């Protein structure tokens, strides 16, 4: 049988990893796919040939469109990243009748609806396992392994940079800014770390996970997104005193009113397995009606972990090249005509528990004023911790944990608390999820 010819766009970290994994494991991959898979062409402006043994056996150019337009290419693998020219290249490949594999979460989150519609019309596949959680096969797990289930909610640590920073802050008592600088020196964070630390990267990934979990269109613009740059080591320590750990969590849940999609710092009970995922590792906890909770853990980034997912997608495409396009696994898990435009809840409609920390005047009656406001708002307090001021200081810290309440109620209560003369500055608010499966 004729080998499947692959055109690789990008020979950077992931592109180079994909080239090496496919070449190194070619015999095993052929046995799994049932036919040979060969990278015959690649496009890259810059690459390190010394770390790509065998590169001289393929054709390399600096024109990605030449690869996409090559009639001998069966599968185009887009590993350039970003929106343009990635979007144009993917759509051109589809128009040329070629299957596409991509690791580009931003592209899928923002333009996936357009891309999948074009692929459906042309009868080709677009595979994107590597777009979420690196080498963890979470998309296949939800889309195929859990297809008998109704997904109720999922929670994910899906950005390794943020998880590394919070782990270091907890374990070593360091400040956010110091750990961020180290993360940049280690190559975990970019020179501009905004996408990682402000939650944008995680929101791209959560958009994709929510879509395949609930059969809804990709809607990145409706994800509530909050970063970790304002998390202090005091918050990390106080959370620990209550038996919680702070994680930068992507969370989506189906409710009777609609779908929650949110990324924000979250207190999680330290006894939960996902609370013990540390460093740059990723994990996704999925709760489904038939199987219950399942946890998926592994490397969320890196050359070969991500290449593992890219090559697995190439194998999947190779296996189905001759199959009926109408009977392939749908891109977003549900048949295209069955995608439901279920409402996405605004953040103020969401119900969750809260951690609140405030600086207060060290005088009688302050605690009573705060608890009265919270009680009048219909909010139940789970625990209170009051930290005495340092000698000669006139400010004390009050930390509260609440039971579950609607965000709208909490917003109103915080506004009244901050208006008190005895409160200094803004109230620190971190959401809390017990991730209970009962």
Give a written overview of the molecule.
By secondary structure, the protein is an alpha/beta fold. It has three domains: 4-135 and 303-338, 3-Layer(aba) Sandwich (Rossmann fold), CATH 3.40.50; 138-299, Dihydrodipicolinate Reductase, domain 2 (2-Layer Sandwich), CATH 3.30.360.10; 347-432, 2-Layer Sandwich (Alpha-Beta Plaits). The protein is built from 14 helices and 17 strands. Strands 7, 8, 9, 10, 11, 12, 13, 14, 15, 16 and 17 form an eleven-stranded mixed sheet that branches. The protein has a six-stranded parallel sheet with strand order 3-2-1-4-5-6, with helices on both faces. Strand 14 and strand 15 form a beta hairpin. Helix 1 crosses helix 12 (303-319), helix 4 runs parallel beside helix 5 (105-122) and helix 13 runs antiparallel to helix 14 (407-418). The longest helix is centred in the first third of the chain and has 18 residues, at 105-122. It is elongated, with a radius of gyration of 24 Å.
In short:
This protein is of the alpha/beta class. It has helices at 13-24, 26-33, 64-68, 86-95, 105-122, 138-145, 160-172, 176-185, 194-197, 200-214, 233-241, 303-319, 366-376, 407-418; strands at 4-9, 37-43, 59-61, 75-78, 99-102, 126-127, 151-157, 224-225, 244-254, 259-269, 281-288, 292-299, 351-361, 381-387, 395-402, 405-406, 423-432.
What brief labels describe this structure?
Dihydrodipicolinate Reductase, domain 2, six-stranded parallel beta sheet, 14 helices, 3 domains, alpha/beta, 438 residues
Write the layout of secondary structure elements.
Blueprint (H helix, E strand, L loop, with lengths): L3 E6 L3 H12 L1 H8 L3 E7 L15 E3 L2 H5 L6 E4 L7 H10 L3 E4 L2 H18 L3 E2 L10 H8 L5 E7 L2 H13 L3 H10 L8 H4 L2 H15 L9 E2 L7 H9 L2 E11 L4 E11 L11 E8 L3 E8 L3 H17 L31 E11 L4 H11 L4 E7 L7 E8 L2 E2 H12 L4 E10 L6
Parallel strand pairs: 1-2, 1-4, 2-3, 4-5, 5-6, 8-10, 10-17
Antiparallel strand pairs: 7-9, 7-11, 9-10, 11-12, 13-15, 13-16, 13-17, 14-15
Helix pairs in contact: 1-12, 4-5, 5-10, 7-8, 13-14
């Amino acid at each position: 049988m004729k080998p499947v010819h692959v055109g690789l766009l990008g020979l950077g970290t992931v592109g180079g990893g994909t080239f090496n994994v496919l070449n190194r494991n070619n015999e095993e991959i052929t046995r799994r796919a049932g036919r040979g898979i060969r990278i015959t062409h690649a496009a890259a402006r810059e690459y390190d040939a010394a770390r790509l043994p065998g590169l001289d056996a393929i054709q390399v150019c600096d024109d990605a469109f030449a690869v996409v337009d090559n009639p001998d290419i069966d599968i185009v693998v887009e590993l350039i990243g970003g929106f343009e020219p990635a979007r144009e290249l993917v759509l051109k490949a589809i128009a040329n009748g070629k299957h596409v594999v991509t690791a580009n979460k931003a592209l899928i989150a923002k333009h996936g609806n357009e891309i999948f519609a074009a692929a459906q019309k042309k009868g080709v596949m677009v595979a994107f396992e590597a777009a979420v959680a690196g080498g963890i096969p979470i998309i296949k797990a939800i889309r195929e392994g859990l297809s008998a289930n109704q997904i109720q909610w999922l929670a994910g640590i899906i950005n390794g940079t943020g998880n590394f920073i919070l782990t270091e802050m907890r374990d070593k008592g360091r400040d956010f800014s110091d750990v961020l600088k180290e993360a940049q020196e280690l190559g975990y964070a970019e020179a501009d770390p905004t996408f990682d630390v402000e939650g944008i990267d995680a929101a791209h990934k959560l958009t994709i996970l929510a879509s395949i979990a609930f059969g809804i269109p990709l809607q990145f613009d409706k994800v509530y997104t909050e970063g970790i740059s304002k998390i202090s080591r005091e918050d990390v320590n106080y959370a620990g005193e209550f038996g919680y750990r702070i994680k930068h969590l992507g969370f989506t849940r189906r409710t009777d009113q609609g779908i929650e999609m949110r990324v924000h710092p979250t207190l999680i009970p330290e006894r939960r397995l996902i609370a013990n995922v540390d460093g740059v590792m990723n994990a996704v906890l999925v709760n489904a009606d038939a199987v219950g909770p399942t946890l998926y853990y592994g490397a969320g980034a890196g050359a070969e972990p991500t290449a593992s997912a890219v090559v697995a997608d190439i194998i999947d495409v190779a296996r189905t090249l001759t199959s009926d396009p109408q009977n392939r696994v749908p891109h977003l898990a549900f048949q295209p005509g069955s995608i439901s435009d279920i409402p996405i809840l605004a953040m103020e409609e969401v119900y969750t528990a809260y951690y609140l920390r405030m600086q207060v005047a060290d005088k009688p009656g302050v605690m009573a004023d705060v608890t009265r406001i919270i009680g009048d708002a219909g909010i139940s307090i789970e625990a209170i911790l009051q930290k005495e001021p340092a000698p000669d200081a006139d400010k004390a810290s009050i930390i509260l944990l609440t039971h579950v309440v609607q965000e709208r109620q909490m917003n109103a209560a915080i506004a009244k608390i901050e208006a008190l003369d005895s409160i200094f500055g803004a109230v620190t608010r971190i959401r809390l999820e017990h991730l209970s499966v009962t």
